[in-house]
Amino acid sequence: MSVNIGGTSSVAKADKSPPTPSNRNGRRRSPTRINPVLYLFPLPAVVLTMFFMVLPTLQAFQYALTDWNGFSAAFNYVGLDNFVRAFTNDSLFANALTNNLKFMLVVVIAQTAFSLMLALLLTKNSRSSVALRAIFFFPTILSSVSVAFIWKFIYDPNFGLANSVLGGIGLEGLQGSYLGNDAQALYWVAVTQVWFHAGQMMVVYVAGLQAIPRELYEAAEMDGANKWERFKTITWPFVAPATAIVVAYTTIQSFKAFDLILGIAGNPPKQSLDILSTRIYSTFANSDFGYAAAQSIIFMAMIALVTWLQRRLLRLTTKGE
Amino acid sequence: MIGSISRRGILAIYTVIILVPLTVVIFGSFKSTPELFEGPFSFPQSLAPTNFAEVISGQNMGKSFMNSVIVTLVSVPLTLFLASLAGYAVARIRGFWSAAIFGFLVLGMAIPAQANMVPLYVLFGRLGLLDNLTGLILANVVSTLPIAVFILGGFMRTLPQELYEASSIDGTGPWKTYSSIVMPLSTPSLAAAGIFLFVIHWNELLYPLLFVRSPENRTLPLALLSFQGEFQTNYPLLFSGVILASLPVVLAYIFLQRYFVAGITSGATKG
């Protein structure tokens, strides 16, 4: 019995299955012959990428295992010593790592929330919205060093804009020394970073928001859903792809805030403003090449890890119905 | 009602936060230091470009400006050229090799520039590419090829395959197809990618900082950075440097705005 049933079913399957693949093949237009010369077209890009990007990156792994100082011919393989040193015996590196994670966390949360808020306020393509978007986007095109100088003046404790505005409106109590205050300096740079790039991320969100069908909101409104419920059940899940882009890009930006930090804090930056990329540069500038290479590998691994964690987290919050 | 008032309020405040510092910078670049400190918001008493003259000739920023122009004018077209060649091949070939080549070229987007700076510095040293503009151009091209291939290749893949096939049936060679069919059709994505590259290459700081030793080989961002130690609180001078360094990009933004938004966003979308 069972054999019989199994037999018929497998026959039935066998009858149907062969045509499917051949159909697929038949439907696909037979590709015209590709001129072999075409394979030469990507060659310059491939060769350059190979020699100046891929091989150097692999070589960083090799350098990381040595004590090479960059100029002497001799060096020793020291195994994983550089990595051990970074994690157990280098307060400067630990400080830069902590600073970087704090900076990243603050910037990612603030910039994502703020750029989404701006985008929600400016979703419509009215004339005023388009003009405001152009203004908010503007700082993105400036160089980091320029932005750093502008904000150095805003934060100047004696003559700066922030303190003179606060003084002018009678809020002397709120005046501060901003970058001069080691406990706060990193957060003031985070504010600068958000000013710098929120407009860029806003544009990503506007594109996401404009793709949401209006009928969804109308239907939800008729069902009596309030603003917050509409945001939670429609907007947030629908802009999830945009959020993924914004969060990933902002994360990478905050790990690479190298130019902004050097511009605002000088080179090398003081400890309270040292982040991973500036630390790697300082180690390199001190001719500690092997150790700098090890730090760069930790840096790369850190970015990969954080990006992966964020993806998981984001999937959890947008999954709901 | 209340919602719309707070909406306007938020937008107005943020507009002020963006525009006021920029205005202070423009006004400030014409002021003396005491004048700036006394009234940062006031219109400058004189529009004589004293600070600009000091920055351009006294601080040799004219030379840095020219270096930036040369580096950017070579890097951007070169990157677009190499990336469009690769993008076209990837769009035409399809199948395994297409995916392999595209994947290999785009992989670099995941490698932050700070990650391979040590080996790159060593390699450039051996090739005599430190402290000259050629090295900066090469570093710019290599570091932005991945994203350019991503934008251009991505666009060229959306062009109808029939287009490529028709031209190969006609007996048109791949070079002819590339230059007279694919490139003209790709103008929007070339413009977007070109703008994106322009902003990145013009503002690039890491490679000049890493490679350039002689003041006469500095590009603008590096020249600006070197001001920071020299003129701690001479903000009017710093501001005129900022304006000089930003001028070309700002002018381009005013005239080519939609390409900027498209380009910089397509750049962001790949992260």
State the main characteristics.
heterodimer, A: 321 residues, mainly alpha, MetI-like fold, 71% helix, disordered N terminus, B: mainly alpha, 2 domains, globular
- Count of helices of chain B? 14
Classified in CATH, the superfamily of the largest domain in chain A is: MetI-like
Which regions of chain A are unreliable across 5 or more consecutive residues at pLDDT < 50? Answer: 1-30
Total helical elements of chain A: 15
Biggest sheet record of chain B = none
pLDDT averaged residue by residue of chain A: 86
Radius of gyration of chain A: 27 Å
Structural class of chain A: mainly alpha
Number of spatially distinct domains of chain A: 2
Distance between the termini of chain B: 39 Å
Q: Would you tell me the overall average pLDDT of chain B?
A: 89
Largest sheet of chain A: none
Q: Provide the low-confidence segments of chain B as ranges.
A: none
- CATH second-level architecture of the largest domain in chain A: Orthogonal Bundle
State the end-to-end distance of chain A: 46 Å
CATH class bucket of the largest domain in chain B: Mainly Alpha
Please estimate the helix content of chain B.
over 70%
**Beta-strand share of residues of chain B:** under 5%
The helix/strand series of chain A, from N terminus to C terminus, equals HHHHHHHHHHHHHHH
Structural class based on helices, strands and sheet pairing of chain B:
mainly alpha
What share of residues of chain A is helical? over 70%
